[in-house]
Here is the input.
Amino acid sequence: MENTVLSTNCLTKKYGSHNAVDSVTLNVKKGDIYGFIGKNGAGKTTFMKMVCGMVKPTSGEISLFGRTGAESEALRSRIGALIEAPGLFANMTAADNLNMKMLALGIHKKGYAEEILSLVGLSDAGKKKTADFSMGMKQRLGIGLALVGEPDLLMLDEPINGLDPQGIAEVRETVLTLNRERGMTVMISSHILEELSKIATCYGIIDKGRLIKKLTKDELAAQCKEHIEIKLDLPEKACAVLDGMGVGSYKVTDKNTICVYEQLDRSGEINIALIQAGVKLNSIFVASDDIEKYFLDVTGGAENA
Ligand code: ATP
Here is the structure.
């Protein structure tokens, strides 16, 4: 597809008999901020390393910018990546670190390092050596290094890991600026859905190597907003009752559950109307999932965290 920047088909990496990444099929479209979410050890880094050519897949396909095979390998130069810790020269300034990378890539462009520093909010870092940078500054410089060469896809592996709230906010702002002002497509991994939810436009949830859920920003918001949850035996009959009451925004989420997203103050009335219609209710209550709880539910609970 024209607008697809990255797609994988049954991508798998085995270490011995262990599937670090197990048959992952996903698509990242142009302009997406794709939140790749999973607990520690779920397979995020391994997946990203395969896309960047740092780890050889056991099986499956990677397609970049609509090309597969050798053609896609040639297009890896259009990916900028920050995977694990940024490799910085500690005794050098931020600008000199960028100059080194430009040199390595054969880029000679006056003012380019300064332009990137401004993009990642490090214009004021001046003559400070990167050894003296905060964690957030180091991560932002890592993103800056990934930007050298104008990539079309930025892959950031846990860029907020270990950062304080200020550092997290700075990285978030940097990613949003790149996406909005440069139209940069970003795949960003984290084990904290709450943090990703502030910037991501869509999500893939990976657990034990498998992609167990794909959802958009709106779908996540709908999952997590306040709603009346009704556990019952006859959803079809109940839908007719809700329609008759003028309740428009509801969803049958499984064969025994309906979630109603409006008129939350009418739960008592809905209760009576359903019973009168002969629907057997097991429970009816106003629920709201916070984002982290949703993530834990999807990935099998806190005990596995
Ligand atoms: P984290 O955030 O902790 O790095 P992750 O989601 O990025 O987690 P991976 O680092 O991709 O997960 O690891 C996935 C699984 O593959 C883990 O069980 C890990 O121990 C295993 N693994 C990763 N690299 C190797 C390797 N080189 N040899 C053997 N096993 C590996």
